[in-house]
């Protein structure tokens, strides 16, 4: 029987493979609506993850701020 992978592990796997993730990508791919909490937990486990604040205009020309998270230490990771 295949083991179910939790959202934290899915986000970590994504960071390892793609180096970055944002909230929309986490929701879209993994249904992870609390990405900042997942990143907080990964940082507590020793992963170095940088936050890049982004600003875009939405379809109604309103300013939208969001964070993009980038995995910094991906060498010799112990998962």
Task: Give your account of this protein's structure.
With 79 residues, the chain is of the alpha+beta class. It has a single domain (7-71), classed as Arc Repressor Mutant, subunit A (Orthogonal Bundle), CATH 1.10.10. It contains 3 helices and 3 strands, in the order αβααββ. It has helices at 7-18, 23-30, 35-44, and strands at residues 20-22, 49-57, 63-71. The protein has a 3-stranded antiparallel sheet. Helix 1 crosses helix 3 (35-44). The protein starts with 6 loop residues before the first helix and ends in an 8-residue tail after the last strand.
Structural key phrases:
3 helices, 79 residues, Arc Repressor Mutant, subunit A, three-stranded antiparallel beta sheet, alpha+beta
Care to give the gist of this entry?
The protein has helices spanning 7-18, 23-30, 35-44, and strands spanning 20-22, 49-57, 63-71. It has 79 residues and is of the alpha+beta class.
What order do the SSEs take from the amino end to the carboxyl end, as H and E?
HEHHEE
* Structural domain count: 1
Uncertain runs are: none
Indicate the proportion of strand residues.
25-35%
Helical/strand content category:
alpha+beta
How many alpha or pi helices? 3
Radius of gyration: 14 Å
**How much helix, percentage-wise, in residues?**
25-40%
Tell me the distance between the termini: 21 Å
Largest sheet: 3 strands, antiparallel
Record the SSE blueprint.
Elements (H helix, E strand, L loop, with lengths): L6 H12 L1 E3 H8 L4 H10 L4 E9 L5 E9 L8
Antiparallel strand pairs: 1-3, 2-3
Helix pairs in contact: 1-3
């Amino acid at each position: 029987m295949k083991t179910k992978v939790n959202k934290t592990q899915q986000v970590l796997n994504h960071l390892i493979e793609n180096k970055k993730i944002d909230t929309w990508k986490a929701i879209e791919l993994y249904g992870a609506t609390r990405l900042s909490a997942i990143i907080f937990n990964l940082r507590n486990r020793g992963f170095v993850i940088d936050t890049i604040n982004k600003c875009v205009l939405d379809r109604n020309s309103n300013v939208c701020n969001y964070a993009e998270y980038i995995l910094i230490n991906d060498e010799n990771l112990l998962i």
